[in-house]
Design brief:
The chain is of the alpha/beta class. The chain has two domains: 173 residues, 3-Layer(aba) Sandwich (Rossmann fold); 201 residues, 3-Layer(aba) Sandwich (Rossmann fold), CATH 3.40.50. It is built from 14 helices and 19 strands. It has an eight-stranded mixed beta sheet with strand order 12-11-8-13-16-17-18-19, with helices on both faces. A five-stranded parallel beta sheet has the order 2-1-3-4-5, with helices on both faces. The relative contact order is 0.09. The chain binds cytidine-5'-triphosphate.
């Protein structure tokens, strides 16, 4: 076995360099490393000397199956400071400290990781983690802006508990979420413009709204939110600023997205219309309840003695997608709807969908055939994307993430020709 740092990988295994800089969140990179190795990636860990204060070289070596080095003086004949970067398919740094971001932005190269960042020509994903003040400091923000301008995907840190008792923005996102986004970046590594949504603000709605009858009962639907969350992740991987309006979803927050939680269709409408004011694209993947009770009882509705059921009178909710499409908060914004259809005596799935595209007035309609309960809660999806020119793009059965990228491809094409 070839064991030098940066040694050749099996030809079919993507080579990932996992850089780890010196923050307390370094321990979370162990989980990220496992995700990569267990999914068949060849991982070379390049910690900084400070990172080894938190997690020792033995841990990285054992988990990656390779020796690790922090400086450029080990195995000098192998020229690792050049070879590791040159031969990588993806470089991910997690956590990326303020110091590492500063060095990367300014092209400094005083250890193996910073040398690797300078020699890498593959996609680079940085997952910063630091105290809120350090993240918000203009020096850090300017370094982040510089790196993003150069095409580096710098993920937004998560909010929550920091090293001490304090909380705020600066946490390393969950390793599983970093892995998801990094994998999507790797999968698109050959694309002409990896960050084609950089500088764009996109709004995605997800989940199903609830309309309460009383404090404990509601009208709802079976939407899991998986497709909307996959869309949010995919947009983050393509460099977008993402607002995710989530209705009753229990999934982990996608890394880098701003998540706004809502329950009812009225709350969803307010949140989506508010965020849409600055959006380049809005994708309505949520399933808003079409009806709500005319009144909501403040007390729990009791069963009657005589066994009769209460009369529940419903009224229709506003159609958010139609409203957005008719009265665009931002001219030129691309509006995308979803249609869950079943065929019936009056027409097949596509006939219903074409009519819906015209009725809603959106630019693209992603059509799912939900006959027999297909799609709900499933990790996979199959769809046809209809456009207003009469075009129909079939998307074969595959992951919700794969469908998300086809949707963003269509959106990006429309934004380009804007
Ligand atoms: N939608 C919306 N506001 C609503 C209902 C639906 O914005 N009150 C959006 C959904 O997010 C989705 C699209 O409209 O993008 C289509 O939803 P669907 O339930 O298929 O459409 P409906 O208008 O409810 O049509 P149908 O009469 O077939 O139920």
């Amino acid at each position: 076995m070839d064991t030098a740092p940066g040694s050749p990988a099996a030809p079919d295994r993507p080579r990932v360099v996992l850089g780890v800089s010196g923050g307390i969140a370094a321990y979370k990179a162990c989980e990220l490393l496992r995700r990569f190795t267990e999914s068949g990636h060849d991982v070379t860990v390049v910690p900084t000397a400070a990172a080894l204060e938190f997690v020792g070289a033995a841990t990285w070596a054992a988990l990656s199956g390779k020796p690790v080095a922090t400086d450029v003086w080990s195995q000098v004949h192998e020229v690792p400071h050049v070879r590791i970067g040159q031969s990588a398919d993806l470089v991910v740094v997690a956590p990326a400290t303020a110091d590492l971001l500063g060095k990367a932005a300014h092209g400094l190269a005083d250890d193996l990781l910073t040398n690797t960042l300078l020699t890498a020509r593959c996609p680079v994903v940085l997952a910063p983690a630091m105290h809120t003040e350090m993240w918000e400091h203009p020096a850090t923000q300017e370094n982040v802006a510089t790196l993003r301008r150069r095409g580096v995907l710098v993920l937004e840190p998560a909010e929550g508990r920091l090293t001490g008792a304090d909380t705020g923005k600066g946490r390393l996102p969950e390793p599983g979420e970093i892995f998801e986004v990094a994998s999507q970046v790797l999968a698109r590594a050959g694309s002409a413009n990896l960050q084609d949504l950089a500088g764009r603000h996109v709004v995605v709605s997800a989940g199903g709204t609830r309309e309460y009858l009383d404090p404990v009962r509601y009208l709802g639907n079976r939407s899991s939110g998986l497709q909307g969350y996959a869309l949010a992740r995919a947009a983050v991987a393509r460099g977008a600023e993402v607002t995710l309006v989530a209705a009753n979803v229990t999934l982990a927050d996608p890394v880098g997205a701003k998540v706004v939680r809502v329950e009812s269709t009225a709350q969803l409408r307010e949140a989506v219309l508010g965020a849409a004011a600055t959006a380049d694209a809005v994708v309505m993947a949520a399933a808003p309840a079409d009806f709500r009770p005319v009144s909501t009882s403040e007390a729990k509705i009791k069963k009657s003695e005589d066994g009769s059921a209460p009369d529940i009178v419903l009224q229709q909710n506003p159609d958010i997608l139609a409203e957005l499409s008719a009265d665009r908060p931002r001219p030129g914004a691309v509006i995308v709807g979803f249609a869950a259809e079943t065929g019936d005596a009056s027409g097949d799935v596509l006939a219903h969908a074409r009519a819906k595209l015209a009725r809603k007035g959106c630019d693209l309609l992603v059509v799912n055939d939900v006959s027999g309960g297909k799609v709900f809660g499933s990790a996979e999806n199959e769809a046809v994307i209809l456009d207003t020119d009469g075009g129909a793009t079939p998307v074969p059965r595959g992951s919700k993430s794969a469908l998300s990228h086809v949707i963003w491809d269509e959106v990006a094409t429309r934004l380009e020709t804007d």
